[in-house]
Specification:
Elements lengths: L1 H4 L11 H11 L2 H6 L1 H19 L5 E2 L1 H17 L5 H17 L8 H7 L1 H33 L8 H5 L5 H7 L7 H31 L2 H12 L11 H13 L5 E5 L4 E3 L7 E3 L4 E5 H4 L3 H4 L32 H18 E4 L7 E3 L3 E3 L4 E6 L5
Antiparallel strand pairs: 1-9, 2-5, 3-4, 6-9, 7-8
Helix pairs in contact: 4-5, 4-16, 5-11, 6-8, 7-8, 8-11, 11-13, 11-16, 13-16
Length: about 375
Amino acid sequence: MSDWFNESSLMCAAEQWPQRHAQLIEIFRPERVLQQRKLWQQQQSLLQAKFLEQAASREAFDVQPLVSSHVLDIVLLSNCGMQPSEQYKQSFLDLTKLYRKRFLSIKSANRLTFRLTSPFVHRRQQRLIKRLNKDNRLMIDELRQQLDLMSSGIVIERFELAKKLEHGSLLQLLLTGAEQQLSEAQLLAELNACNYLAYMLISTTLCFALVQIARHPGVQQRCLEELRAQSEEQQLSELPYLDAVLKETLRLQPAQLWLARQLTEDYDYTHSQLGAGSLPLGAEIYMNLFALQRSSDDYGALPTKFEPTRFLAAHPVELLSFGLGPRRCPAQDYSLLLLKTLLAPLLRQFELLPNGEPLRLDLHLTLGSKNGFQLALKQREAIN
């Protein structure tokens, strides 16, 4: 995906990583994240209203379209600080689908092969990237104007939306928070990468969590008891079982199936089932998170069982879905907090019913379900 993310921290050189990583850590500081809660709650209420419409029939439906649309709005508002156009959102979704379809295709073995064997798809991909970056540049220019005016004590009505969000957007922090200013290419790539990764992780995990909870009534009841034992004003960090449910969902259904690393030196190995060997400097290593997190060696005799208490044990199991080592995702706490902000009110208001077809997993670039994420809803009675 280098055409889209090439200058981002996701793909930057090793010597650039410490400075780029420090920027991301600053962006996801807890006090900054809490400033975004009002925005998240506003968008969650819109999602909840859509669920209420579905609950009236109690018929099975696919939650993915609803979840996907609202999560994309949250991600783009949080990262861009303003509402992108419908054309922008559609281009983003089209590009995401295009890359997912390309994954593991022999025609996409490398960039040259892809360009030669799929010229029309390649041109469409490049058009979509160009269209997104054109709008990204407009948002960057507008935000720079806003920041210049605000530093002069001037407020312009057309910037009022960003002001009302009452949070520092990713884009604003990238423009103002770095000691070393990013180039335009780096700004565009960082914004694109963060938009994609946040959308992919949050929307996929929320869909899987809803289905898993619907199909495990004991898990749903324990979640509800934990929520009812606390007021809605209490911190979401005080919901350890719901946190464990989300981690167990990420373990069994990691949104990102593969973890890639590039060797910085030759690596001799002896533990392979195929025998000993050597991997050269520069080789790309791909780790299958879907298989690793279902290993009986690490997750017990029933590694495919949905059992959130694995993460509540004295020595909890390891979650690999956010990556490994120094390049692990710096947004783990941010992502879990956003997921709990979206999920907790839904569990308070609705009983999730295990209606509809079971999941048919689709293992491509990101994990999905070939037949959607089906369940039904029943509105809970209010408790005095």
